[in-house]
Structure formats: structure tokens, C-alpha cells
Amino acid sequence: MKYTITSILIFLLIATTSFGQAPEGFKYQAVIRDASNTILANQAVGIQLTIEQTTIGGAAVYTETFSPTTNAYGLVNLEIGTGTTSDDFSLIDWALGPFFIETAVDISGGTAYVVLGTSQLMSVPYALYAKTSGSSTPGPQGAPGLDGANGAPGLDGADGVPGLDGANGVDGADGADGVPGLDGANGVDGADGADGVPGLDGANGAPGLDGA
Q: For residues 99 and 121, is the Cβ–Cβ distance under 8 A?
């Protein structure tokens, strides 16, 4: 039963790839049709894309899944490198090609993917390879550019408005009265004065008159 479904789906999917430079990814488009070759418009589908290295069925270097809804023309637009994955697209070394892309689809929108086919990537990722000029080693640093000319001095700004005078400070409070001084000590009694020099003896008085 699975083989029958696989065979039918191989003839019902019309897939094209359009490549364009992108930092880490490239475009992928597919038109989905049913068993009657009728376009499946506005329908959810499950898609698994695997990038294989060296040969068809070679080592899978990157696998991712998408759950897009077709548009009115049965077209899905995907960007490889942005799907659901545990791999790192930026780690693919595009210098080690060739690379192939395997497409698997579940037209019911689930994850029962059926492999439809594998085709070689002919040019796209090599635009990513060209980012490094064929080498993973950065090129030498270029010479510094010339200094630009000095710009004209800017105009002086207008003087600012003078600030308002500050308010007068509050008068200080009167200081507290000092503590009264202590009474002075009593003076020492003066020493007794020296004895004066003795006075001179007075002159003898005149003799008195004789009595009658």
C-alpha cells in the first residue's frame, strides 16, 4: 500500500526550485496536485527536505520540516534554512559538494512523509559558498580609509538667562550668656613698714631768769 501511494505521489508533485542569495537560506517552491491531477488549493501539507552530500542517498548534512498551506494555485513557497530542525544550516560547508536535495511529502498535512525524489543542487548554495571566496579563512584587512575633512565649527549658543539672586540667609540666633566669672582671691596683707630714722635732739632752751 505504501509503495502504491509513493508511486502516485511521485507523479502528482510538480516541484521547482528558485535560488537567490540569502544570508543563510534559499527559496524552494512546489505545486501540489491530487491523484486526478487537480491542484490542492488552500490545503495544509507536510514537507520534509533533506540535503545530502556527494551523491543521492549520501550523508544527510541538513534535514528540516515544514507545515505550509498551499495557496489558491496549489503552490507552497518555502525557504530552506528556516524550517523546523535540530541541525545548523550555517555549518554546511558548501565547498565540499556536490549536494542533492531530497523531497518528501505528506499531502494530508501530517508527518507520514513519502520520498518523492532527489535532485542535485546546481547553483544556489554556491552563492553562499561565494560569501567566503572559496575559503573559510577571512581575507586580509583592507587599508584604512582617509580621514574625513573636519566639519565647520558650530555656532556659539545664546547666553542663558541670568539666574535669580538667592534669598537672604536667616539671621543667626543670639548666643547664650556666658557663665559669670569666679570672685578673685583676697589680696595678701602688706608687710610692716621699716622703723623711721630717730629725730634729732632739740636745742637747749634759754636759761630762765632769777627769781626776785
A: yes
pLDDT tens-digit profile of 140-189? 666 677 777 787 787 888 888 888 888 887 887 887 888 887 887 787 77
CA 17 to chain centroid, in Å, comes to 37
Return the bridge partners of 28, or none.
78
The helix (H) or strand (E) run that includes residue 12 is: helix 2-12
Nearest to 33 by CA among 77, 69, 75: 75
Q: Could you give the CA distance from residue 114 to residue 8 in angstroms, rounded to a whole number?
A: 10
**pLDDT band at 12, cuts 50/70/90?**
very low
Closest alpha carbon to 93 in 67, 131, 122: 131
Cα–Cα distance, 209 to 212 (Å, whole number): 9
| pLDDT tens per residue across span 187-208 | 777 777 777 788 788 778 777 7
What is the rounded CA–CA span in Å between residue 130 and residue 82?
A: 20
Cβ–Cβ < 8 Å for 104, 115: yes
